[in-house]
Design goal:
Aminopeptidase, 168 residues, 30% helix, seven-stranded mixed beta sheet, alpha+beta
Amino acid sequence: MPTSTFSVRPARTSDVRAIQAIREPFLGKVLQHHELVGLFEKIQEFQVVVDANDRVLAAGALHVMWQDLAEVRSVVVDDSLRGKGIGHLLVEALLEEARKLGISRVFCLTFETEFFAKHGFEPISDVPVDAETFEEMVRSTDVGVAEFLDLARVKENTLGNTRMLKLL
């Protein structure tokens, strides 16, 4: 299937159960569990890839973390369709959304380092924010922000993941 048979659009509330179903095989392995209510609450962050019948094939989110910083998160492609360019289409759409918002740095925490490297993400070992920004961001209740900040309370969730950053 060529990627031209797919399109990317903002997710709708009617997509949440399909997103949850696509995420299911990856929960606890490469994705954190989100309650259904959590997916509904964050639906405006998600983009989905759909086929000609508007069937959801992939999903991913862009979460703004700070004035110039966002995270690409929860990128998942239906397991039966991996390797067809759908994930690349999705990540490019999320990066374009970041550009539209004026974001200049995009973070991801991933096991899929080769995939994200193809999009210009590079591994990082530190937290690339100044002390003042760190003090503000540490107040966030978002687990992804805590992972970005490399806080001890989320260490077990991040074992084996690689922290990567892309400059836009």
